[in-house]
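Hey all, quick one. A colleague (J.T.) asked me to put the MU-OXO-diiron job into the tracker so the inputs and the structure tokens live in one place instead of scattered across chat threads. No bug as far as I know, just bookkeeping. Sequence used:
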Amino acid sequence: MDTNRLSKTIEEALNAQMTKEAHASQIYLSYASWASDKGFDGIANFLFRHANEERNHMMKVLEYILERGGKAKIVTIPAPDADPTSVQNCFEKVFQSEVDNTTAIYKLVKMSHDEQDWATWNFMQWFVKEQIEEETLAMNLLNKIKIAGGEKASGEALYALDRDLESAPDDAPSAEDATAANPI
Ligand code: FEO
């Protein structure tokens, strides 16, 4: 008796998403390593923490596939792209990586909707919400570097930004979590 509750298409798409989250983790690791090498230890720390978060996302998808009776296939993770050329470029790459991930997540949401796989549709809603946070976080990084002077940021401004990110929270607050008593 087949106990797999995922269609072949959804199982494949979830497996691809699982690898994509692992890839995101590698991307953040490579940028963190670049930042550390350039002496931006605060930025590196922030990116290292985020790499762990991406790995947690990968595990979340893996556990869901198994929970539904599917097979999680562990495959090669593509190498991250080239190192950033500047702090601004680093944050632009982070933002682009998050937007790409959101696009992949939306495809899975649509696919599960088309197949009326409401369990997967419901599972994916967590990722839809998470991506709002992740994109906000990336936009905030870009705003910070813009204020610091962008590509022309002085050493002093970059030093302050680096120190600031050392203690920055890992998650951006999400608008859906706002209440009258605790507006964000
Ligand atoms: Fe797992 Fe940054 O999204």
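Adding what we noticed when we looked at it: Residues 177 and 184 are 8 Å apart (CA to CA). The radius of gyration is 18 Å.
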